[in-house]
Amino acid sequence: MNITIKSLTVEAFRGVPDSQRYHLNGNNILIQGPNGSGKSTALQGIEFLLTGQISALRGSGTGGVKANKHIPNLHSDPSDTVVRAIFEDSEGDFQVYRRFSNRSKIVTERRPPAFDELVALANRGFLQLTREDILELVLTTPSNRKEEIYQLLDTGELDDRRLRLKGVKREAAQRADRELAKAEDAIDRIDSLASNSVSVDNGSTKQSLDTEALLLEINKLRKQLNAVPLSTLPEDGSFATGVEPPVEQASHPLQRKDVRRDIGVFHSWIDDVEEHQMTLDHTRRAISTLQADSDALASLSELSLIQRGRQFVNEGTTTCPLCEAEWESDTLRNRLEAREERLQRIEQRRDELKAQSDELLTIADEPIRALQRLLQISEEVDDVNWKPIRRFVGVLQAITNLVESDIVENIESVDVSKLNTEFEDIVPEETLKQLDAKAEQFPDRSELQRMWDDLTTLSDCYLDWQVARENAQHYEAITDGLKVAKREYIAARDDVLDQIFADVSERFGEFYSLVNPDESSFDPTLGQTNTGVDFTVGFYGEGHHPPNALHSEGHQDLMGVALFLALVDRSSPFDRTPILLDDVFMSVDSTHRQRIAEVIFSQLSDQFQFVITTHDESWADQLRDANAVSEQNVIKIDGWTPTDGPRIKLKD
């Protein structure tokens, strides 16, 4: 499969106020001109045509640059902004265009599969290489390199699947924990009625139920209620089977110990409502603060890069090791220190929010079960207004669901309005007063009635314990199964990625050695770790080191280009792939650039259609002299003006 670019036309686009056409004819192209003459306009035009975006106007470091304002020419009507191109595949030429006024849509007179593949490559970043891209591949942290390479190789879905497995496993573990909490709650209620049946494991606070001891307690009650003893505990928890209920007086749910205990639980919660409100308010403000700082969490990925960069900055440093900009040494050092301090503060805010949200989850979850059990008697106690309790449980459940969704990881999508609650305004105190007053109306039951109530309550608690324990075991089994599935998936994923990285490392070494054949022990290794993708290269038999440890800046740039070409070679379905190189060889010395030009002509032009920009006349001469780019395919730009745009020099 093959596809090449034959021509490009930009209209009212970037620095071109009217129209400018670039003839590529499917060949290698050199765009030569001084800085600020609009060389990159052609490359950005191809990128915009295929993706609808310009990467240089996106991401961190772009400040107040806005695509809506800065993609169209500043002196033109945005409705006139359009990029057109003619492509060639095995069936011939076809035209494509994209308008800024409808930049989500690309229009083609025909759309062969090869074009869709080219669009996919462009959207993954396999089209244009800049000096900034080289930094992301070579001079960066393993985690950032992983993100960059995963995007290029389109392996992000592999990590997405791992995260989905992790999320499902976490959800199953949370369900197991909730069911275990229900089982513990049921044991607590059994302990209040038959304490001999509950024991605490040695060395822990975990409670366990002794079913034989419980059977003895049940039979004591049955004997006093003139019923025959049970030989075993019924699976359905029907401990009162065959027992005649006392009829001395009518029974009411508010006379039950477990109901009164649940009312007491919520009274205790209300006593601390001011502290609970403070926790809620602190969490809401922490979320709002991070949401308002839209770049805060995203900027954390820069922390390790800043810290790494500071290692190369001392009192005499006047050039930034990351962007090569010139600085006064004190200003650069102070700038990096300030940036690092800000990122550390953001990291601290994130950790504080996690601790705060965990505390809020405990507070919101604590009274829910007690109130839900109270609601179960609402039909029997129908002369009490239960609506405030239902509404309050709904508010607590909404807070619990929000906090359980991992608000730190999903901070941008958190609906903080769900935390705009004043507990004192919605606490169902009137309903609780009604319940307290109503309970006081009932006298103490007879001893037989108490035993009957204890027996039936134990039945309910035992059944709740059984169900919760079985559910917990079910979800624990699911969690264990998902742990195995995740482990096996990661192993299979790593096998696939290890082979991909081995292929890329081999091809990278081949490309690099074409320009540096004397480095026989170069032997690059590119491989994944738990935290990212490590990148090391050999150095004249002195072991493996990071690219920036011993190699010069020019060699590092060559590595970036070679690695990019290796990744393209591994991922591209084309026999010959278009590649846009935007001034990426400026740190390379003349001798090595001469070798690059020769390699482009002899080794790489059959595999890639290069579009190269440069302001350096000697580099342009080397490309022409080596036949990497023919004289007919050199586009010279003399300069640029706001009214006329790039001034292309006509060929003789």
Rounded to an integer in angstroms, the radius of gyration calculated over CA atoms is: 36 Å
Residue fraction in strands: 5-15%
Structural class: alpha/beta
Distance between the termini: 36 Å
Please identify, by name, the CATH architecture of one domain.
3-Layer(aba) Sandwich
- Main-sheet strand order equals 7-13-14-3-15-16
Percent helix range: 40-55%
CATH topology of one domain: Rossmann fold
Describe this entry's structure for a reader.
Strand 10 (525-528) and strand 11 form a beta hairpin. The protein has helices spanning 39-51, 67-70, 113-123, 131-137, 142-153, 156-193, 211-224, 257-271, 273-292, 296-299, 303-310, 329-365, 368-375, 387-404, 423-426, 429-440, 447-515, 547-550, 553-571, 590-604, 617-625; strands at residues 4-13, 16-23, 29-32, 82-89, 92-99, 107-108, 128-129, 198-200, 207-209, 525-528, 533-538, 544-545, 577-582, 608-614, 634-641, 645-648. It is α/β, with parallel strands linked by helices and 652 residues long. Among the domains are: 1-126 and 572-652, P-loop containing nucleotide triphosphate hydrolases (Rossmann fold), CATH 3.40.50; 252-444, no CATH class. The two termini are 36 Å apart. The strands form four sheets. A six-stranded mixed β-sheet has the order 7-13-14-3-15-16, with helices on both faces. The protein contains 21 helices and 16 strands. Helix 4 packs across helix 19 (553-571) and helix 20 runs parallel beside helix 21 (617-625). Keywords: Coiled coil.
